[in-house]
Design goal:
It is an enzyme of class 3 (hydrolase). The chain is of the alpha/beta class. 36% of the residues lie in helices and 23% in strands. Strands 6, 7, 8, 9, 10, 11, 12, 13 and 14 form a nine-stranded parallel sheet that branches. The structure holds guanine and zinc ion (ZN). The site of zinc ion has 5 residues, from strand 6. Zinc ion (ZN) binds next to strand 6.
């Protein structure tokens, strides 16, 4: 059954970090998006002749339709501990994270949190979350089962941890391998799902476990890998102690075959020059998590080095909840802008919206499916309301261009801006009021 949406839409076609901004996007002030079998079959100027027979397009006024956002690094199990007060990464993990995550052996508990998490992601306009689960296979089943009922394109994986965490959260190199393999066989490629091999970070895995993770990543066709990298200076020093003889943090993962296409590294705040080069050469991906980096006092990510330099690294955006503090990619962009400001680089609105849509889709090797509004792509969309709040309405009255409107949205906006969210053409969220 076909359907259609009418309204202004914005979709990137190029890369504003590499070419003139003006030629890098397609904006249609009165657009029509026709959807068939979950995919876009037409996206262009409104033309009554292109509306399928019997279909009345849903018409959004004072709004802007954009591709659904991507949250490329997030921990759904940490939803109940967002805003945990304290020190930096390692204390925060021990004091809050490793306590909360012990509850996920209970599948009903996991399901309840997955529901809340997905509700909030859709409410924020995110249609593709890539999430860590916990060490418990039940936490992965609960997540994918909930995502299946919404028809999302999403990735997730069981956390691998066989040391330096409470006993109740540990697997072994062998059980972690076996359970991950069974979960990947069950979920990878089912619907729009992809499995993500998930060693939490080097300190909580023995060399044997990292080797097993490397084997999984190499053995299962198209599987992803996610972990944390160089988030915090104490963490980096600990990795150097735990893995003597390696040449830095990234080299630890590299030794176990964990650096390549579809490997997603959260943070990368403190990379060395050889590490930047290696990431670029390997086609590996950084996920920049600005609200988390500020909340945990981790440091200021070098977005300019990542994207504007002559040797760029694939870079996506993530919330990293529960260390991150907002589900909303608009808030994430706002904080990304401020971090860049502190490093002397200004992130324009078009660069920012590119990064949250096609830029992230490209960075995570999913741009054949998502990230832009064009025929053939999945109909994953977010409808943004320029006048979502009284101050937005008042402020937008003074905006002189699309670029200014977008910048105001990412400065003053949050979940309230999202009027509706579509996944595979189905309306999965609609703001009331
Ligand atoms: N490093 C290892 N585990 C985590 C986590 O859960 N959150 C963050 N922000 N960093 C980590
Ligand atoms: Zn994280």
């Amino acid at each position: 059954m076909a359907s259609a949406i009418r309204g202004a839409f914005l979709s990137y076609t190029g890369n504003p970090f590499k070419e003139a901004v003006a030629g890098s996007f397609y904006y249609e002030s009165d657009g029509l998006i026709v959807i068939d079998e979950g995919k876009i079959s037409y996206a262009g100027v409104y033309d009554a002749g292109r509306v399928p027979a019997g279909v009345i397009p849903e018409h959004y006024r004072d709004a802007l339709i954009v591709p659904g956002f991507i949250d490329a690094h997030v921990h759904y199990p940490q939803t109940p501990m967002i805003g945990a007060y304290g020190k930096q990464l390692l204390d925060w993990l021990n004091k809050y994270t490793f306590v909360t995550e012990q509850r996920y052996h209970d599948k009903d508990f996991a399901r309840g949190i997955a529901k809340v998490f997905l509700r909030e992601q859709l409410k924020a306009g995110v249609t593709t979350p890539i999430t860590y689960c916990t060490v418990h296979p039940e936490s992965v089943d609960a997540y994918f089962e909930e995502a299946e009922s919404l028809g999302l394109r999403t990735g997730a994986g069981k956390v691998l941890m066989d040391r330096h965490a409470p006993e109740a959260l540990l697997d072994t190199a062998q059980t972690g391998y076996d359970e991950s393999k069974a979960l990947a066989e069950k979920w990878h490629g089912r619907g729009r799902f992809f499995y993500v091999v998930t060693p939490r970070f080097a300190p909580t895995s023995t060399p044997e476990q990292l080797e097993a993770a490397g084997a999984l990543y190499q053995e299962i066709s198209g599987v992803y890998m996610q972990t944390h990298l160089s988030e915090n200076t104490k963490e980096i020093a600990w990795v150097a102690e735990l893995f003597p003889g390696t040449h830095g943090y990234l080299d630890v993962y590299d030794r176990y075959g964990l650096v390549g296409p579809r490997t997603l590294f959260g943070h990368a705040v403190h990379l060395t020059d050889p590490e930047w080069k290696r990431m670029a050469e390997a086609g590996a991906t950084i996920v920049h998590c600005p609200t988390s980096n500020l909340f945990l006092g981790s440091g200021l990510f070098n977005l300019e080095r990542a994207l504007v330099s002559s040797n760029p690294v694939r870079t996506a955006l993530g919330s990293d909840l529960g260390a991150g503090t907002s589900f909303s990619p608009l808030v994430t962009l706002n904080e990304a802008y401020k971090i860049a400001q502190l490093r002397g680089y200004s992130l324009s609105a078009h660069h920012a919206f590119y990064l949250a849509t096609l830029g992230s889709a490209r960075a995570i090797y999913q741009d054949q499916h998502i990230g832009s509004i064009e025929a053939g792509k999945d109909a994953d969309l977010a409808v943004l309301d320029f006048k979502a709040t009284p101050i937005l309405a008042d402020r937008q009255a003074f905006s002189a261009s699309l670029e200014e409107q977008l910048f105001v949205l990412m400065t003053l906006g949050d979940e309230r801006v999202i009027k509706a969210t579509y996944a595979a053409g189905r309306k999965v969220y609609e703001r009331t009021g």
